[in-house]
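Appendix C reproduces, verbatim, an entry submitted by the partner laboratory led by Prof. M.T., so that reviewers can inspect both the input and the predicted structure.
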Amino acid sequence: AARGTYIFPPRPSMRLITNIFAYCSKNVPKWNTISISGYHIREAGSTAAQEIAFTISDGIAYVNAAIEAGLNVDDFAGRLSFFWNAHNNVLEEVAKYRASRRIWAKIMRDRFGAKKDKSMKLRFHTQTAGSMLTAQQPDNNIVRVALQTAAAVMGGTQSLHTNSRDEALALPTEESVSIALHTQHIVAHESGLADVIDPLAGSYYVEAMTNRIEKEAMEYIKKIDEMGGAVAAIEKGYIQKEIQDSAYAWQMDVESGARVIVGVNKYQKENEEPPKDLLKVDASVGEKQKKQLAEVKAKRDNDAVKSALEALRKACEDEKENLMPHILTAVKTYATLGEICGVMRSVFGEYEAHTSL
């Protein structure tokens, strides 16, 4: 929802989501169907409240679409999960995670009438903030990631990805990945933070901030509801504009020095030399992959591929048809992701983000 070009227009993409819910609830009921992501929203520059508000609004749109397609909320809601960012302000991030759980539970119970406890639970994965990694003094990123990790754990994340110190400059080296992994190990086994559920509960500051973020997020959700939901808000450019405004305000604070970024606008090193041990991926890797792809296309049954893709195209044109079986059939014939998406694009078109914002 943040920026760029969408492969599918928003409304056909809702069909894909509801098709996934319907197919998986019957065929793979223990599969976690989708991860509703706010990570990219925060990476694009949103605030903490915007991250959860815009993402939960997406979740509301998915649930609405599924119910309108005839699905029972308790048949699929327990398999939904979310994907949050872990930003730099530790206590604000903890409050954000706590607020997101409150909001989702209330929405699922009060708006959608969910009966099962599992349907009301907001399970989430967290990744540390890539946008907060600095190219200057990259070793400082080890500390940033450790603090972000602590915030995610104190906020109750179910799983976690820790970024590596040199990712602002290149793909990470094996040593950098090892440090990122051991950051999780240290927090898990040495800090005690993972031994307690909601360790900051009762803190006046954290409770007050949780209430503030919940209130601010709910105001955004109400405004998006009044626009007709997340899809309409995206089509109108509202969500994109709000994120862009927040990103601009953040950058202006950095430029003015009102917000300190260590090594960037304060405590800089003079004549700092870039790291010399960055990972360099040889161009032969890409050539090898292209060769392997060509071999797959030469060896597969291309008549079967053509037939499967044509069946998928016809299914796309029939709104009552579930696309999942046709997609899986195409995959089994070794149709590529690009070929499958190309068929869908030919039917649904391609949505481009607003250029006037």
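Residues 1-10 have pLDDT under 50 and may be disordered. Additional entries are available on request from the coordinating office.
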